Every structure is written in structure tokens, then in C-alpha cells.
Amino acid sequence: MPRVTGADLLLQALKREGVSYLFGLCGDHVNPLFVAARRHGIGIVDVRHEAAAVHMADGWARVTGRPGVSVVTGGPGHTNSLTGVATAAAAGSPVIAISGCYEVAQKGRLAFQELDQVTLMRPVTKWASLVTEAVRIPEMVATAYREALTGRPGPVHLSIPLSVLSREVEAPPPLAETRPPVFPLPDPGAIRQVVERLAAAERPACVVGSGAFWAKAGGALTRFAELTRTPCFTIDLARGLLSDDHPLCFGYADPILNETGKALRMADLILLVGKRLDFRLKFGEVFDPGAVVVQIDIDPAEIGRNRPIQVPLVADAAAALTALAAEAARQGGWRERPWLEQLRRQQKAWRESWAKGEMSEEAPLHPLRLCREVRPLLPEDGVVVIDAGDFPQWPRMTLPARRSGHWIRVGSLGTVGAALPLGLAAKLAHPESPVLIFMGDGGMGFYGFELHTAVRLGLNAVIIVGNDQGWGMEREIQAALYGREQIAGCELGLVRYDEIMRALGGHGEFVERPADLLPALTRALASGKPAVVNVLIRKGTVSPLTAASIAAKRSQ
């Protein structure tokens, strides 16, 4: 039998799963893996911070629908990666997070970087394990993939000591072909019940979340909506699954960021597809207490969380929507309800309410003016990646989602700064598409040196920094609750991120006036380089999300 190293076994197992890139940062514990990757035909995307490595693996998963793999060294490399793993967990993103680790044979002897890495990972992963024998690596990788993709997707973890990666062993016999997860099919009786209730409803609405994205349910969702004339709202990774340009899509399923979404309170039937009833939907309180709620979710634990559910369906989202469409087709004669025209009027009024900010000639710029200039530059295949904080809420609110996996948010953990590595992974996955990353100036401080990663790897994304010279959201919350004279820890001053990008070898633009924005954006997109467009944004322009946060805090 041929002899191979543990690193070879790991790379062979990952390649068997279709892995083309490892996102990581080198270190002594994982050097054998990095060195061997090239001969196995797997690329190394090396970053400047371990959390960014996991964010990039997460971004790859969210854009491609396939698990991303991060590789970091042990000890502080491992602990640095935890925020990235927690972010992926909150988003339900299948990341395979691999860390090197100390020599477990020296456990309890104060070994170098001795740390119980697996225990640290367990609260933020679906499954975590230590690999102690090289011959078991293929088995452990197969288990990791199975755990990451079964049910609600999520991150998993393997800690692997240096000695296990370096050790030569006889190659174990190949594993049987990995079978894809088997997803539950919907109950036919429940499907008939849903269609009967839908036919009787006067004001139905469909709210679609990330579960539909992972199920690749775009085609099934479109067929169902068009057949039954049901208005749809999308959220999380489902943004773009049904294009915002579609006449039956009414945008973001969040009433704070989409005034049309307030109509969800008037719906008499809610079809909740692959979306957890979390804080974004006020734990179900955005719906009328008397509304019939149909919940479709692959995870039985999510059914009925935070609100009673009248019709539960534990099923894969694509299978359920396909079955619903088939049953609805048998009934035939679906009419367009007056409710749809009401929603269209609300949507039109909401979009028209942006006009004052969009046309503003004030300097520094109103964020809506920035969004207005960006919108025509976004082709259908353009990718939008949006950070947390105050400024990013404006593009989040106004820029359309047209394709699945092309409209990315940091997710429910609200990891400020993560949009930069997420967006670079999107550019790696879609090199021919323009990728626009929207950051506040505060968020740029977290992973700012990933600009260097972008330059080194030729990832020509355009980073648009809304620069209000501070932590805008916290500044406005503090001012509202304690008085503007009491503001503390929120001022950053003017940082020229455009000059930093130029110093690193990319393209930089600084914009102070509205008339200069479109030419700057055009030059950045045409530069052929990673680019930063650093835009001075007017202070005190409170986003709807920040305003809602202030109102909620005042009512407590």
C-alpha cells in the first residue's frame, strides 16, 4: 500500500467533496497542509486575519451554495477564527472550519498553545471533533460534510494536531461514495390543507428565508407564486431568489427597512418558507395574531418557535413549494386578488418617499443620494454585499436583489466589518460580475488589511465607504438617549481609506460632493483594480433601523 501524509489524506478528502479553495492563514500547525495544497490542485486564499479566513469561507458558501473551507493555525489562530464561525452559525452557512492544534500527547504538561479548542467551538458549531489518527481523516471529513449539510446548514469544526498532518501512514481504502443528505418530503395531506386555506384567503403573503436558498428553491418559488398569484417578501439569503423586479415580489421582509412590509400585519394567511421567527420578524409579532401561519422548515425544532403555527410542514423548501404548485395547478383558476394592487400602491409610495434624499445636492452627501448614483451601475449579475452599522442600512433598504446569491448581508449576528471578506469571496466566485461592498468607516477598521488581500489576489471588488467620521449608529443612539453633549467613544475623525488603498496598490477615490460621485464610481469600476470609493456622508442622517432601535430603547 502507498504511504501518504495526513495532509495528503485531508486534501484528497476535501477535493473529493469538490473543494477548489482553502481560505486561511499559515502557521506552524498547518504548514504541511498549505505546502501540499498546490500539488493536489487546491488553491490557497491567504488572508491577514483568521476571522477573515472564516468570513471568506462563509461568503463562498453563501454565494455558491456549497460549503467553504477555512484553515487556520492553533492557539490564537483558532480563537481569532471564532467570530467568523459564530457569524456563519447565525447565518446558517455550511463552513468546514479546520484548525491546527497543539500536540495532544502533551496535554496537561503546559504544552505550547495548549487549549481545548473543540470545547471552545462546540457552542458555535453543529459538530466539532479532534482528529487524533491520520487514517481517520477521510472518515472525519465525510462526517463533517454530512453534519454541515443535514437539516439546517451550519458550520462544523475539526482540530488536527501537526503530528497528525505530518505523519506518514498507509493509505486507507477509499470510502464509499458520499451520499447527499436525504431531505424530508412534505406530507400530502398538509399540502392539500395549505392549498385549500390559500384559496380561501383574501390577503395571503409568502415570506421566504435562507432555507429556500439552500434548497435551491428559486424555480419552485417562482412557479408557485405565479400560479397562485401570491405576493412574496424575501429576507436573509433568499434575497434575489425571486427578483425584486418580479411583479409578485415586494422586497425585503422587514417592515423597518421596507414600508411595504408593514402590510404583512394585514395578511390573513402567512406562508413562512425556510425562515426562522427571529428578532427580525419580531418573533412573529409582525403578523396579525389572528392570521393563519403555515411554516415550512427542514428543521423540526424551528416549527412553532416563538408563535403557534396552524399548519406545520417539516420539509425541504423546494420539495414543499413544488408540491404546493402541483396541488394548486390541479385546482386551477387562481385569481389576482385586490390585495395585490394595494401592495403595489404601498410599494410605489415607499419608493417615491426616497426622492428628497436621492435628489439632495447637500455636501457631505445624503446616503440616499449615494444609493441613487449606484443603482444604474448595477447590472443584473452585479453582486451587492452590505455591512452592519448605520450607513449600510440605506443600500440595504434601496438596492434591488435580482439574483440568488448576489445580495449578501452579514447576517443576524451583526458582525461589523465582515462584509469586506464576504465580498472578496463573492468576487472570487464571480470574477466577471461587478461586486460592490458597502461599509461604514467604522466597519473598515476591523478587516481593513484585507484590502491588501484583495490587491495581492487581484480581487477587483469596489468598496464604497460611507464616511461620517464616526460610529454613526451608536452616536445617534447615545445622542437620543443621553443628550448629544454626553456622546462618548463614537468619533473617529476623517480617515482616508482611499489613500490607504492606493498605498497598497489598488485604486482610490475621495468624494465630497454629489456631482463627483458618479464619475468616481465609474472610474473605480473601470480601473481593473480593487478600489475604495471613500464618500463623505452627512452626520446625523439616521437610518430607519437606527430610528427603530432608538424608539425601542426609549420604550423599555
What does it look like?
- The protein is of the alpha/beta class and 556 residues long.
- The chain has three domains: 3-170, Thiamin diphosphate (ThDP)-binding fold, Pyr/PP domains (Rossmann fold, 3-Layer(aba) Sandwich), CATH 3.40.50.970; 188-348, Rossmann fold, CATH 3.40.50; 354-555, Thiamin diphosphate (ThDP)-binding fold, Pyr/PP domains (Rossmann fold), CATH 3.40.50.970.
- The protein has 21 helices and 20 strands.
Kindly provide the radius of gyration, computed on alpha-carbon positions and rounded to a whole number of angstroms. Answer: 24 Å
Number of domains: 3
Question: What is the overall shape?
Answer: globular
Q: What's the helical proportion of residues?
A: 25-40%
Main sheet properties: 6 strands, parallel
How would you classify the helix and strand content by structural class? alpha/beta
Q: What is the typical, i.e. mean, pLDDT?
A: 95
The end-to-end distance, rounded to whole angstroms, is: 69 Å
The CATH superfamily name of the largest domain is: Thiamin diphosphate (ThDP)-binding fold, Pyr/PP domains
How many helices does DSSP assign? Answer: 21
Number of DSSP E strands: 20
CATH topology of the largest domain: Rossmann fold
**What is the chains' assembly state?**
single chain
CATH class of the largest domain: Alpha Beta
- Percent of residues in β-strands: 15-25%
- Catalogue the unreliable spans: none
Tell me the CATH architecture of the largest domain. Answer: 3-Layer(aba) Sandwich
Order of strands across the main sheet: 3-2-4-5-7-6
